[in-house]
């Protein structure tokens, strides 16, 4: 079987506290995996590392391509970790444009389609804080639609 994801000696410290300690494993393509552990065991932090959302030591490869901070991600992925944030002073469109900027192939039409999919108007330029009360779940789950 082909290795799809390889995590080698990945560690992360925050304020002197080790949150990931020399994690090493590989996952094969075409299989489904899950992470199991108690609260605070590092599951979300590990997923953040795999998604190149945080800086770590060690190395991560996906489809034999390095996964590194501030570089285009090697595959299309949609992820919703814990409580995703939006910038309440920006419109829903502007929030998605910021997220889409991380993807090399997300277009303005993709953003508009994602908003329409959940019943938000792409031409609505109100700040997110004005529409959150009524549409909080819709607005916060949009980033996971870019896969």
Description:
The structure is a single chain. By secondary structure, the chain is of the alpha+beta class. It folds into 2 domains: 3-66, no CATH class; 92-145. It has helices at 43-50, 92-100, 108-117, 128-141, and strands at 3-14, 17-28, 57-62, 65-66. A 4-stranded antiparallel β-sheet has the order 2-1-3-4, with helices on one face. Helix 2 packs across helix 3. It starts with a strand and ends in a 6-residue tail after the last helix.
Write down the secondary-structure element order: EEHEEHHH
Averaged pLDDT: 82
Provide the low-confidence segments as ranges. Answer: none
Quickly count the domains: 2
Give keywords.
single chain, 147 residues, alpha+beta, 2 domains, 4-stranded antiparallel β-sheet, 28% helix, 22% strand
Quick structural summary:
InterPro entries: ABC_transporter-like_ATP-bd (IPR003439), P-loop_NTPase (IPR027417). This protein has 147 residues and is of the alpha+beta class.
How are the SSEs placed, and which strands pair?
Blueprint: E1 3-14, E2 17-28, H1 43-50, E3 57-62, E4 65-66, H2 92-100, H3 108-117, H4 128-141
Antiparallel strand pairs: 1-2, 1-3, 3-4
